[in-house]
Design a protein that fits this description.
Number of strands: 5
CATH topology of the largest domain: Rossmann fold
Shape: elongated
Strand order of the largest sheet: 2-1-3-5-4
Strand content: 5-15%
């Protein structure tokens, strides 16, 4: 009987020590691990751009390959065609059409043929293209991991740019700019279509 009481006593002590160790580790661990309590929330920086887009109709569509496109649905409350943040392959029914949109955007944005841009704008009802300063350089694509995922399209674009071929969209960077701040340039798709009509 005495041995049985001792065994129960030691079991209780052992259980108490285990609970104590778990409690101490749960309290101590978050303070020891610097990144434990830090979230990875993105903070929008292009405030003027968001404000400009918020003044546009709610049903506009922005086409862009730049990282800032990730922030537009949250901070500008406007729709984007594609972006890296939303390129998560949940299932093929979602991802394959999404990937095709991205490929079509890459092809249109870097095409030498203005007809490709026109068709793309009509196909996806695009209102704006959001660009960055050096987006029409091969180096931009080479360092953009998301664009590079779309092969062989990305490599074909790099090859064309290195040959000196100039994308048709580049011509409208100034004449059809609706809003420009820092490295961002928002190109009006309607302006592009109007310019295509007048030149044809």
């Amino acid at each position: 009987m005495l041995n049985n009481n001792k065994s129960i006593f030691y079991q209780k002590i052992g259980a108490f020590i285990c609970i104590l160790l778990i409690a101490v580790s749960l309290i101590y661990y978050p303070h020891r691990k610097k990144s434990f309590s830090k979230n990875k929330f993105q903070i929008g920086q292009a405030i003027e751009l968001y404000e400009f887009l918020q003044k546009q109709p709610k049903d506009i569509m922005v086409a862009s390959l730049i990282p800032e496109a990730d922030n537009l649905p949250t901070f500008a409350q406007r729709s984007i065609l594609v972006s890296k943040e939303y390129a998560i392959p949940y299932h093929v029914g979602y991802y394959f059409p999404f990937r095709q949109k991205a490929i079509n955007l890459i092809e249109a944005q870097y095409s030498n043929d203005v007809t490709a841009i026109k068709q793309f704008i009509h196909q996806y009802n695009v209102d704006f293209f959001l660009l960055e300063q050096d987006i029409f350089t091969p180096e931009y694509i080479e360092r953009n991991s998301w664009i590079k995922q779309h092969q062989p399209v990305a490599n074909n674009v790099i090859t064309n740019l290195k040959k000196g071929n100039s994308p048709a969209l580049k011509v409208y960077q100034d004449s059809c700019s609706a809003f420009r701040i820092n490295k961002y340039n928002l190109i009006n798709a309607s302006c592009i279509l109007d310019n295509i009509k007048t030149t044809n």
